[in-house]
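Standup notes
- HV: blocked on the assembly model, inputs below
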Amino acid sequence: MIRHLLSGADLDADTATEILDTAAEMATVAGREIKKLPALRGRTVVNLFYEDSTRTRISFEAAAKRLSADVINFSAKGSSVTKGESLKDTALTLQAMGADAVVVRHPASGAPHRLANWVDGSVVNAGDGTHEHPTQALLDAYTMRARLGRLAGLSVAVVGDVLHSRVARSNVLLLSTLGAKVTLVGPPTLIPVDITAALAPGTDVSYDLDSVLPNADVVMMLRVQRERMNDSYFPSAREYARRYGLDGPRMRRLPEHAIVMHPGPMNRGMEITPEVADSPRSTIVEQVTNGVSVRMAVLYLLLGGNNR
Amino acid sequence: MAYPPAARSSPPRQPSVKVILASADVQRVVDRIAHQILEKTQGAAETVLLGIPTRGAPLARRLAARISTFEDVAVPVGVLDITLYRDDLRRHATRAVGPTELPPGGIDGKRVILVDDVLFSGRTVRAALDALNDVGRPASVQLAVLVDRGHRELPIRADYVGKNIPTSLAESVKVTLAETDGTDEVKLYGGTTS
């Protein structure tokens, strides 16, 4: 078993499938009266968040607590970080407190990799800069498998700001490992040149959403961050929404079985219209539920045994 | 079969294998446990069989099948995975979690009979009792095992025992079942026979 989860590329097909299978068992706990398992009793999980996040932090916290681990939440705001403490010193402090796992979100790409060299415990990347967010990719894969019954051979369109999206990067890596076919869709300014060769050679790129939709089993809409809107990657928010936003008429061009995903938080009216977000095809709420099960599986597989 | 190796032991520590129950014996033992369950539970009313993986699960299904042949009652069967409740999780590499499947009627207020292949230290049963505690509140819990080999480390006993096998700690007992291994058999692998 792996010791850290830093990238979608850390997982081979067997390990990824084991995580998804374990997550399916963890999901049954959510339906019980007592939503608690004793597997990580006495272990300490630190949530180290240098960036604002609600759903990911709460999801990790719920996952760790359901496995009976002790959870320490650390957010950069209101901590010694504002006094200038470096990541390394913070890491050594956590180490001294006996953290068995550190769940880290950081605005700098690669910060979790550095952290993994400084602490003895397991490091889980909960999003680093514009780099990766592997547990999001796992929960997306879990959701696709739960809705469509398989991953191999699925046609997945990832639409939007691929350039700045850690969700997209982790998804491309994981989904191609699991045999799905990914097409990256977005304005040319927001899709890095040569991204497919760098990440996964089987991946396609398209600048035309309408031509991709009729053959997609899954459409994953990415969030367009507000701060990007003034960075002249595209002429205006309205133009972006017209060309790359998913609205009702576009959704009806999808095959009957296709699902619509979004990692959240959504900009309703920008990349996705309320009609689509609230339709039965949308898995946005399921993704949140599945996130807890998948993170339980990851924490259990990293911390459950004697893997040192 | 008598005790051949130890008495004549010329080459020391020859690994000895002894068949304790052959295929037909296993079936007879399962039949007897099914009868005992019917007798002790007044016709298996309000009773649920929960098998502990791996081999407890097919054993529980067999018991239910035999019970329905003998008395025409359908006993609900389920599987209770105990991986996450084990007390030795940290001593091994991470174990894969198996499915827990409770019968549709649940276990609340029922008489639950846990089914396993071998009763040894009792630690598996302790874990199963903890797991049971989290999935419902049965009226009572009983334990049925195919083989009891002794050496308990916890105050746990079985209500239904297929076969008591006196063993030394150096020996090991291996149960195989048609569903999981192809054949029904109980074998005793010897250390040095006392």
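- HV (later): unblocked. The radius of gyration of chain A is 19 Å. Chain A has two domains: 8-132+288-303, 134-283.
- Next: hand off to the docking folks.
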